[in-house]
Amino acid sequence: MADDPNRAVPRHMAIVMDGNGRWAKKRFMPRFFGHKAGMDTVLRVVDLCAERGVEYLTVFAFSSENWKRPADEVSGLMSLVLVGVAKYLQRLADAGVRIRVIGDRETIPDKLKAAWDQAESSTANNSRITLTVAFNYGGRWDMVQACRRAMNDGLKPEQVDEKTFDRYTALAYAPEVDLFIRTGGEVRISNFLLWQIAYAELVFTDCLWPDFGAQQIDEAIASFAKRDRRFGGIRETSPAAAAVDS
Ligand code: IPE
Ligand code: IPE
Ligand code: MG
């Protein structure tokens, strides 16, 4: 059943973790307080997703465009990653989480690069769930880096098809995104995964990221389970009938 496109639980869930700043503001606290709470939410959500049978969880932590924020917020987010890796890596490793990081690693501080390398290498053999952190990531960046690497490999235009191109994208190791969630109330993609969400089901929730938990995950999965994914085709049987058939 692993490849059943109408399975009730998404194999691959992607989340735009938005709303940390507003969550902090509501509490008359600095934005950093919201980011800190947001990091704890990631830890919680990885576990909740693994328990529900999600195999790949991809979260948007820092976008190519987030450099536009005030320098102190950017450096705060960077140091939060360093603290987070130091504090939580062992816990994630022990919980069977495989960590992958996607995004431009050329333009982030060396210390951060080292932390991400360590997170990836020390969890490489885990298989309970793959947590991909999109950091200094943009969907457009991803497509450009894929083109560049393909050209660098000397691929001829006629050798480039969708399957080949996909192999050069940052999430080549993961199945297609089934469920795309954005917290925080905005209804936009903000340059997160573009190529990979061609046929993802979309869920937008007003819940601010630090408040996201079991209830919101279960609501999103329940909504996903009700969708009839046709991928451009037509279905002659209802999802319920198909479930009885299989
Ligand atoms: C999302 O929360 C986290 C990052 C972009 C790092 P925001 O910081 O965008 O929070 P809001 O949207 O201002 O509430
Ligand atoms: C998207 O949120 C980026 C992350 C969650 C990392 P933003 O808060 O940066 O997006 P916009 O600016 O509202 O589009
Ligand atoms: Mg935001």
Explain this structure:
43% of the residues lie in helices and 15% in strands. With 246 residues, it is an alpha/beta fold. It has one domain (12-138, 175-225): Undecaprenyl pyrophosphate synthetase. Helix 1 (20-26) packs across helix 2 (31-51) and helix 5 crosses helix 6. It starts with 11 loop residues before the first strand and ends with a helix. Bound molecules: 3-methylbut-3-enyl trihydrogen diphosphate (IPE) (2 copies) and magnesium ion (MG). Magnesium ion binds next to loops. Magnesium ion (MG) binds at residues 18, 184.
Which key phrases capture this entry?
single chain; 246 residues; alpha/beta; Undecaprenyl pyrophosphate synthetase; 6-stranded parallel beta sheet; 6 strands; 15% strand; binds 3-methylbut-3-enyl trihydrogen diphosphate; binds magnesium ion
- Compounds present? 3-methylbut-3-enyl trihydrogen diphosphate, magnesium ion
What is the count of structural domains?
Answer: 1
Residue-averaged pLDDT: 95
Q: Which geometry do the CA atoms define?
A: globular
Distance between the termini: 9 Å
CATH superfamily: Decaprenyl diphosphate synthase-like
User: Helix fraction?
Assistant: 40-55%
**CATH architectural label:** 3-Layer(aba) Sandwich
- Put simply, the count of helices is 8
